[in-house]
Amino acid sequence: MAIEIRPCTQEELKDYARIDAYVFANNNDAEVAEQMGTTQPDWTMCAFVDGEMATTMGMFPFTVRLNGAPVKMGGVTSVGTLPQFRRQGLLRKVMRQGLETMRDRGQSLAILWASMGAIYQRFGYGLAASQVSYSFDPRFAQFQQPRQVKGRVTMRSMDDGYPVVKQLYILAASQRNLHIHRARALWDASVFRPWNKDRVYIAVYDSPDGEPRGYVVYRTAEGQHTGPGPAQVMTVVDFVALDMDAYVGLWEYIRGHDLVGKVEMANCVGEDDPAPDLLLEPRMLNRRTSDAIWMRVVDAQQALPQRPYGDRGEIVLGLPVDDLCPWNAGNYLLETDGRTTDVRRTERSASVTLTPNALASLLSGHRSATRLHRAGLIEAADDTALRNADRLFATVYAPHCPNGF
Ligand SMILES: CC(C)(COP(=O)(O)OP(=O)(O)OC[C@H]1O[C@@H](n2cnc3c(N)ncnc32)[C@H](O)[C@@H]1OP(=O)(O)O)[C@@H](O)C(=O)NCCC(=O)NCCS
User: pLDDT > 70: what percent of the chain?
Assistant: First the structure.
């Protein structure tokens, strides 16, 4: 059995698309063709068994905000092995080669959405963001304090609205943590894509002096009339508010849909969204959280200096073992003034020792060092070392990636 690991060619993209469609049971040919239109052979890594494509993996060249700073990351996607080739180590080979390629390209971190966490944890991926979902009846989502809507919300056509929402997203994302720089293709695939022929609407909040400060992208659909109440369903796809006036304006706009009985907001806001703190009955949000983005530190020495830190200071991080990215193993001295950071290898003993998985959770700001330590996921020299790590790795916003990919 001859195994070859390499990117596919332009001609082989159709095989790549076929495997991707099969493993994810996507029977919509038009959607598959659209998705593949945004994939380039150079962004793939595949396994071929005796010349036949068996495993696929995509690596989108993303720029992603990490605690506000733009960082090149590989967006891992389309991971699949045809059933007859599974459990033979093909994905492991593809992943190893893919991580080396990302490293060569200066993508010092990789991120993905996992169908199953089990697949990626053994490859050194750690949880880097949760997703928050709300599902609420707008009649029970009023603020605890009456809040005045100062500006106004207007619906925009796609042509008029796109440049406005794009600019607002850029302003919001540049402060955030794990927001992806969205190319038009990503907007189309993850925000504007109609679902079951539902129409996609854009509504923009303008401040009293006419400045756009927030927007909501949503769909509405008729629901099942099982009782006497309103039955429409509003699905919010994207929600951006640059300030609390915009937040209140958009929230009240959503609540103004009298015939909507259920508002679904899945992964539109981060874990630090203020709604639970603001509502009269927070429980009525039916707030749920679950795992979202998994991150892999591809090149620790390159990745660590790229994010802003929570404070000035220094720390020695120990990463004794890294199977898939062996170049990472070692101790690193990180010195930062908060904005500018220097990271170099050191012989000094580590104050915090961790696995690639835990490093991803710490670096992204998803988990504090103290919390990881309590769970037995990192070792610390003492409590002072933990408090120091907590202070340095704190992020302004909780990590939140509002995009699928
Ligand atoms: C996930 C998938 C790509 C794995 O492909 P594969 O070529 O069989 O993977 P490998 O044989 O290289 O296995 C890699 C490791 O992951 C483990 N693994 C693979 N699939 C797993 C699963 N579903 N659950 C738990 N562990 C899994 C293997 O045991 C192996 O561990 P090891 O290397 O420590 O022995 C394949 O099962 C698949 O196509 N699944 C359906 C599509 C899917 O879920 N894709 C992921 C989308 S995010």
Answer: 99
| 182 alpha-carbon distance from chain centroid | 12
Domains and CATH numbers, the chain: 3-107 (3.40.630.30), 132-291 (3.40.630.30), 299-393 (3.30.1050.10)
What does DSSP say about strands 232-241 and 212-221: parallel, antiparallel, or unpaired? antiparallel
User: Is the Cβ–Cβ distance between 107 and 79 less than 8 Å?
Assistant: no
Which pLDDT tens digit goes with each residue over 10-35?
999 999 999 999 999 998 888 778 77
Compute, in degrees rounded to 10, the torsion defined by CA atoms 172, 175, 176, 178: 100
The sheet with strand 126-127 has its strands ordered as 3-6, 44-49, 52-66, 69-81, 109-113, 293-297, 126-127
Whether residue 196 contacts residue 235, with contact meaning beta carbons closer than 8 Å, is answered with no
DSSP state of 143: B
Distance CA 342, CA 334 (A): 6
Higher pLDDT, 229 or 110: 110
Centre of ligand 1 to C-alpha 323, Å, is 17
Write down the mean pLDDT value for the chain. 96
| Closest CA relative to residue 256, chosen from 154, 139, 155 | 139
Enumerate residues lining ligand 1, CB below 6 A: 23, 55, 79-81, 86-92, 114-116, 118-119, 122
pTM of the predicted protein model: 0.95
Compute the distance between CA of residue 205 and CA of residue 207 in angstroms, rounded to an integer. 7
Mean pLDDT of 317-329: 98
Tokens at residue 295, please?
């991150």
Q: Computed from CA positions of residues 111, 114, 118, 119, in that sequence, does the dihedral angle turn out positive or negative? A: negative
Q: Can you give the pLDDT at residue 197?
A: 67
Mutating to test ligand 1, I would choose from 84, 91, 291, 296 the residue with most ligand atoms within 8 A of its C-beta, which is 91
Reported confidence tier of residue 196, pLDDT bands at 50, 70, 90: low
Q: Bin 130: left if φ > 0, else alpha if -120 < ψ < 50, else beta.
A: beta
